[in-house]
Write a structure and sequence with these properties.
Chain lengths: 519, 301
């Protein structure tokens, strides 16, 4: 059976109850009862939740084989917490552990070894890279991994598809009663929104910090009422990799060209009016787009209503200049954003459910006007891949991409037409992470294409004199420069399911096949 | 374009690209400079000259540069590389060669001979590969006129500021006063020889203000364009070289008036109180050509 992106869903998955994805609007008017965590009460007389070691915390939580542990990615590539916890898990001989990560960066790659050794047997995450991605793609994980968007993950938790036994939450500072913050420590990450969801839904919650703050550590991003234990370690991470110096505008002329064209597209659309809302990431073109917006806002005498999502310094600067009314923050990418969060009442954090959950009473992104996103690949049906590389191996992160693309009134993908020898615009993406029904405009260094489903946008761009071409013409240009790559060969076995935000199957990732020059 | 038209084509911006870097040479037409200069010289490490020639050859053979002029900066005559640079460049189908560290008219003639041989060897139209010379020393600048006249293939001379300043023992701190004589001599020499003249690169990439100032200066001195090391500089040059609306309108009226009067057999006449004759035609036509290149002229000329 094929889904809306034209992907064949394997019978074995259908037999297990998975359903094919039928489009961004295929679910409506759903009612369901949320599942809740088990709560072990803290007795009167217990005045500290502080334990001496992770091992003590494991014992106190009743850790055993087969449990599901969760970790968050707010410390990005600088995270030491997941690695410290998992080394203890391995040292103490636990087996058959499942991981439920909000995302995995380049840290904690020792987990790849534990996957090979059968210590880790299950995984759900929003991002996966490096050796862990290779281990899963090469079939080392016993179970099928599930890749979810940020909105899809919190939906799965609240529905009960993800059950977390113990959440290990790294925090920049925490008091002995579990009031945890992404600020006030040696390694500050700002918002803890992704971790907060785990704190509220895991049966046991352990905060891991390197900075014990006096009680009460308020304002806290995670309240002590959700926390069972606190463990102090020497270091929770590498501050330089947790929050970089303030993002600056790129000097890459290619990225600058893409950004200028992106802003010109935005400006030509009716959504670009006083009070509009905006989201983007931290790639070169995204930062440049944010910075270029300033002049256009000033020229037209308008301001943005709000920005949502992952936050960087250029966004904070726009707010300080009075060009943005509010910033709803789920993650802080650099020190400027970390410092601003909570200091200025217009810059506040929101929960991940409030950000992007498709199954709640209305997330922020339901009201989003523009989202500017990147892509590893885009195909002629506007399907996007942000997960698998040109070798078919897992090395990316859907993150909020499928959520915001589906919800925003205008989703613009910005990407160079080719990267190295790899065409970005192609006949068929390796893996669909965001279906073409959610993608409206593609801006590349070689030209702009609009999804033919959006004739309204086409009319506005034509009226503004903005040149655009059929996406097939961009694919042809890409192939003319670097050639058309052969299809990637896979083994039959499915190693990962790419779950759409509503819990259906967007695509599957099959086991990577070792390259054989004679085939 | 015939060879004479190719020699006189618009060259406001000539962008250097290391021939060693595929990411740069695969699609520089996106940034729409007037000319591309694939560099085999200083941007390529000594032990990578072969690899760079290989990339250059295949890029020129296989990629569509959308009508933008493609030149190659070859290694200087005192290196073991220049002869093979010429062969590869001509074989690939390049439009012209920039002679690095050209000191004398004889240097031009040596390269010209190598180009003639290569044109025969690779069956290219005789005379189709153009030449320009980079003047990088005081001696070269003093020989500018002789160099400009050294070959019918010569379409321009360019100042190369880095080496020139090293010879002069200046740093450029004086805002360009050190280059003033050289720039003036070069424009005079190029004009006397009937070819084009190009200014040196501006290497402080983040100082766009300083770049703009220097570009205005060399435009006012009479240069045809500037060497470019980063695509961000292109729009600035093109904007500065773009004629104003008033200039375009006047040029259009001048061209039409001279044509009309010529048909009536009138050689000299008045337009808006200004004496005009055929001598004004060339300047007015150049303004229209610049306006067209800048996307500012949609009229019938």
């Amino acid at each position: 059976m094929k889904n809306i992106a034209g992907r064949e869903i394997p019978q074995e998955l259908l037999d297990q109850g998975w359903k094919p994805h039928l489009g961004k609007d295929s679910y409506r008017d759903i009612e369901f009862r949320k599942t809740g965590p088990k709560v072990k009460i803290v007795n009167r007389g217990t005045e500290s939740k502080l334990l001496n070691s992770l091992e003590e915390a494991f014992r106190a939580c009743g850790m055993r084989d087969g449990m599901t542990l969760s970790f968050h990615h707010h410390f990005r590539d600088g995270d030491y917490v997941m690695e410290q916890v998992m080394r203890e898990v391995a040292r103490l001989g636990f087996q058959d552990i499942k991981l439920a990560c909000t995302s995995i960066g380049s840290s904690a790659q020792v987990v790849a070894d534990y996957i090979e050794q059968g210590i880790v047997t299950g995984l759900t995450t929003s991002g996966i890279r490096d050796r862990i991605g290779e281990a899963v793609s090469h079939g080392k994980l016993k179970e099928v991994a599930v890749l979810r968007s940020h909105g899809g993950r919190i939906r799965a938790i609240e529905e009960g598809s993800i059950r977390i036994d113990i959440a290990f939450i790294g925090a920049s500072s925490c008091d002995e009663y579990g009031n945890a913050s992404g600020k006030g420590g040696k390694s500050n990450c700002g918002s803890l929104s992704y971790a907060e969801a785990d704190a509220m839904h895991a049966d046991r919650v352990v905060v891991v910090t390197d900075t014990l703050a006096p009680y009460p550590n308020k304002p806290s991003h995670i309240d002590g009422v959700y926390v069972d234990y606190v463990v102090r370690v020497d270091e929770i991470g590498d501050p330089k990799k947790i929050a970089s110096a303030a993002a600056r505008i790129t000097t890459n002329p290619r990225d600058l060209k893409i950004s200028e064209d992106c802003v010109n597209v935005m400006r030509a659309l009716p959504y670009f009016k006083d009070g509009f809302s905006f989201q983007t990431g931290v790639g070169g073109p995204s930062i440049a787009t944010t910075i270029f917006l300033r002049e256009h806002l000033k020229e037209l005498g308008i301001k943005m209503g709000w920005i949502v999502g992952g936050i960087s310094t250029p966004m904070v600067d726009l707010m300080k200049e009075g060009l943005v009314g509010a910033i709803a923050d789920v993650q802080d990418f650099d020190l400027g954003a970390v410092e601003s969060l909570g200091e200025d009442p217009r810059h506040f954090d929101i929960s991940v459910s409030e950000y992007a959950n498709p199954f709640n009473k209305g997330a922020f992104i339901n009201k989003l006007d523009f989202v500017i996103l990147s892509a590893l690949e885009v195909d002629v049906d506007f399907n996007v891949n942000v997960l698998t590389g040109s070798d078919g191996v897992l090395r990316g992160a859907p993150g909020g991409h499928p959520d915001t693309a589906a919800c925003a009134k205008c989703c613009i993908i910005v990407t160079p037409l080719v990267r190295g020898r790899i065409p970005t615009v192609c006949d068929r993406v390796v893996t669909v992470t965001t279906a073409g029904d959610s993608v409206d405009v593609l801006v590349t260094d070689h030209g702009i294409a609009v999804n033919p489903a959006r004739q309204d946008l086409i009319a506005h761009l034509d009226a503004a004199g903005i040149h655009h071409v059929d996406i097939a013409a961009l694919r042809d240009m890409a192939y003319a420069i670097v050639g058309q790559p052969d299809d990637i060969r896979f083994e039959e076995r499915v190693v990962a399911v790419v779950e759409a935000r509503d819990g259906t199957v967007m695509d599957v990732v099959r086991q990577a096949k070792p390259f054989d020059i004679n085939e | 374009m015939n060879i004479a038209e190719r020699k006189n084509r618009l060259r406001r911006t000539m962008m250097f690209l290391s021939a060693q870097r595929p990411n740069l040479i695969k699609d520089p037409y996106l940034f729409a400079p007037d000319s591309l200069i694939f560099d085999l010289e200083d941007a390529v490490a000594e032990n990578q000259k072969d690899a760079a020639r290989f990339s250059l050859y295949h890029a020129i053979k296989n990629l569509d540069y959308h009508g933008i002029e493609r030149l190659v900066r070859i290694n200087a005559l005192d290196t073991p590389h220049w002869a093979e640079d010429v062969r590869v460049s001509v074989a690939s189908g390049i439009d012209g060669i920039r002679i690095a560290k050209c000191e004398t008219a004889q240097d031009v003639r040596v390269i010209e001979q190598a180009v003639i041989s290569a044109e025969q060897e690779f069956s290219r139209e005789p005379g189709s590969v153009l030449l320009m010379a980079a003047l990088e020393s005081p001696l070269a600048v003093l020989n500018a006129y002789e160099i400009s006249k050294a070959s019918p293939r010569m379409f321009g001379i360019a100042l190369s500021g880095g080496d020139f300043r090293r010879c002069l023992r200046t740093t450029g701190a004086g805002g360009g006063v050190d280059m003033f004589t050289a720039r003036g001599l070069m424009v005079l020499s190029a004009r006397a020889a009937g070819i084009q003249c190009f200014d040196t690169v501006y290497t402080k990439l983040d100082d766009l203000e300083g770049f703009e100032k220097e570009t205005r200066l060399i435009k006012d001195m009479g240069f045809d364009g500037k060497s470019i090391v980063n695509a961000r500089q292109i729009k600035i040059v093109h904007d500065i070289f773009a004629p104003s609306k008033a200039e375009i309108a006047e040029a259009e009226r001048v061209v039409m008036a001279i044509r009309e009067n010529a048909e009536k057999g009138i050689g000299i006449f008045q337009l808006d109180g200004k004496m005009l004759d055929i001598a004004f035609m060339e300047g007015a036509e150049r303004t229209i050509a610049l306006a067209k290149a800048s996307g500012l002229y949609k009229g019938g000329l």
